Amino acid sequence: MQSVLPFPCPLMSTVLNHERPVIMPWKDPLQAQIPQIRDGYMGAVYYGQRRSGDFYDFVRPTPDRVVFGLFDVAGDLQQTRAIVVALQQKFRSSGARLFENADTNEPECLVELWIETNRAVMTAAGGVHSCPAFLGCYNEEIGTLSYVNAGHTPGLVRDDSTILELSATALPLGLFSHSVPDSSVVAVRPGNTFLTVSKGVIEAKYRGEEYGIERVREYLSQAHFDTAHETCVGVLSKVQQFMCTAPTHNDVTALSVVRTN
Questions:
Q1: In 1-58, which residue ranges form alpha helices assigned H by DSSP?
Q2: What 3-state DSSP class applies to 67?
């Protein structure tokens, strides 16, 4: 399983700096760096043969904020590489610019980030090209997670024994040029865990039965790992156990935030 290098690339990113990244004519997606947070952990784990358009990325525009995204660009990666590169470049540049001010309204900026990344997908594709995505901004100072779920599988937040489902608030990226998205905010209190997984996790099958979102909910309600990395590895291990084999039907990815303090 990969947890740090979802794309092999010799170029290093500057997204963990508080400076706006330089726009570069990238030919391949850049390496994602998972940031450290002071009140817990962030993690993301990818497993697969890098056949499809699953990827995750992070931007830290201020000391108190991390902007993240989990994307699922439809189609084979080799055929959609230009879309993935354009999407990642726009996510990093816009994420740094939109969230850099101390008084930023995070839900409003996530809506704008959806608009700008949606435009980037359609421009790179030369038209319609579906890309479900989960866009989020975690604020370490106040312990909130603002998000836009763009036709993605639901995000889940465990709060004590309750599982809160973060359902779709917008259409997938790349479908309509003038769609109006919505955003929402959820509290992430000490002891809470956020988890979102890619479509490949939900659609994993054994004897015709899908793993499904309910099994992800059950896993999260029972799993109490100390770190986000362990949380991600755990759910992908559950998928492998369910299938009785390593998942090869699709790329499978998990992204998590665990707040400890």
A1: none
A2: strand
Q: Buried b vs exposed e over 20-50: b needs ≥16 C-beta within 10 Å?
A: bbeeeebeebbbbbbbebeebbbbbbbbbeb
Length of the chain: 261
Which amino acid type is present at position 209?
E
The CA distance from 147 to 67, in Å, is 10
Please state the domain extents for the chain. Answer: 40-259
CA distance 112 to 129: 19
Give pLDDT tens digits for 55-69. 999 999 999 999 999
Under a CB-based contact definition with an 8 Å cutoff, are residues 238 and 215 in contact? Answer: yes
Domain 40-259 in this protein, CATH class: alpha beta
Position 11 pLDDT exceeds 50? no
